[in-house]
Write a structure and sequence with these properties.
The chain is α+β, with helices and mostly antiparallel strands. It contains 2 helices and 10 strands. Bound molecules: iron/sulfur cluster.
């Protein structure tokens, strides 16, 4: 029997997180996933939520001043809404951090008003005097 949905919609799609390929039924209310059926593990719930509200971890670089490398690789601590990624890239292109940079260092806190941080994913040492 299908799900009972009042005031809601049902979206069906296949989870592609693992080879089992569960057929998911996501029940939506007010544009948000209220429940998921058909998933054989919790990852299917996360997948369904991301399908309805697409989010991605943003991976990029920011400029480094005084370092032995000109840029440092960074990523967001959590997935962010896909539609905000162009604005996020524009902001990151204007950021410069001072060396040294440590892996895991927070480069931007509460990025774009979201409760996520942008952190460095590698070390950059100070430039050696020539
Ligand atoms: S719901 Fe879980 S078991 Fe099913 S395809 Fe997705 S990841 Fe695999």
């Amino acid at each position: 029997m299908g799900p009972i949905v009042k005031d809601g919609r049902v979206l069906e799609f296949t989870c592609i997180v693992c080879p089992l390929g569960c057929r998911l039924r996501a029940i939506l209310e007010d544009g948000e996933v209220r429940s998921v059926e058909g998933n054989r593990c919790p990852r299917g719930i996360v997948y369904a939520q991301n399908e309805v509200e697409p989010k991605r971890i943003l991976i990029s670089v920011v400029k480094v001043s005084g370092g032995n490398l000109p840029v440092v690789s960074v990523k967001t601590s959590e997935p962010m809404p896909k539609e905000m990624i162009p604005e996020a890239m524009r902001i990151l292109s204007k950021v410069t951090v001072q060396a040294p940079v440590k892996i895991g260092q927070i480069i931007i806190k509460d990025f774009l008003g979201l409760k996520i941080n942008v952190t460095a994913t590698r070390n950059v040492d100070p430039a050696q005097p020539s």
